[in-house]
Protein: Phosphatase
Organism: Actinoplanes cyaneus
Amino acid sequence: MSDRPVSVGALLRATAPDRLPEVIAEHLRRHFAADRVEVLVTDLTLRRLAPLLGPPGPDSDPGALRCFGSQRPGTETDITGRARLHLPLSCWGERLGVLRVELPERPEPEQADELRIVADELAVAMRAADRMTDRYRRAQCLERPTMAAELQWDLLPGRSLGDDRFQLAGLLEPAYDVRGDHFDWSLLGDRLTITVLNGAGDGMESALLTATAVNAMRNARRCGSDLVEQAELASDAVHSRYGGSLHASTLLLEIDLISGWVDAVDAGSPHCMVGRGGEIEQIRLEQQLPLGMFGEARYEIERFRLEPGDRLLVVSDGVHAAAPGGGTTFGESALLTALRRTRLQPAGEAVGTVMRSLREFHKGYEPEDDAVTVCLDWRR
């Protein structure tokens, strides 16, 4: 019989942060008679998986990719009766990767439940260990990021979050060469704060601008400030550093997960849309000054309301204003089509669909800007 779930958690907590895959593989071999075990983590693009136990590089297992996309366990059995299980590794809605386990036979339901608990325990441990070892980040980077991209990725809160009230996901591209675009979020009780930011400039200067604005907003938020105070503190911080020569276009949202009311401060270029009943409508907000454009700028909150089942989408100008070759913009000609394709997809897959459509739109041209897409499904 396998150990009880608490034993797995205690085992992982007693393990060095960089040794979690080896310890869980040994546990599965000893208590579940597993022949082979692999821990796969997603790369920065969320399109490829990389092994932690096997040789470095992308893994081509289609079953693992299906499991990662659907976030549902899968079992395949060959003609000899041997079973290959794929178990999602996720923590508080954050998709980390897939645990692949090969067994002599298909597991009984009770054993399958225990294996899912092992995967859940491993995901929590890996999420906690990420700040204490470079092992998992190294596997994620199938290419070398620029210094600006490294800074931007380290600022992100994660790439998905959720519970029974909502599902939230964000994607930042091009993954290995981003500059000033960014998203942030925080959940506190029934209030969910989301910001999408587009920093001006290029390279490290743009990344440092974004870091200044994001950390100023976090500082205000963590001290209990509302959206106006968050925007004003960040604007003052950016202006103090750059004197108005650089600024950060930002959309700040705070969603009441009980009532659906959304407080918003529109300080620039990110666009906000709501999908409801098969239709997609842009939320028209009064565009206020980008953060840092002028000293002592003042901001006002606007409000709109979500309905249960609504999908809220926010895209940076690298999405809606993309115009490869100087033609029509993605927002004018292709964005709504891309968003309609996401109607039946979970939030984590929806952001990928939008970004794939954007890459197809750029076919033959290099993107001139980085891009952010954030998707929130409010279930109530």
The chain has two domains: 5-139, 145-378. The chain is about 35% helix and 25% strand. The longest strand covers residues 94-103. The first helix runs from residue 5 to 13.
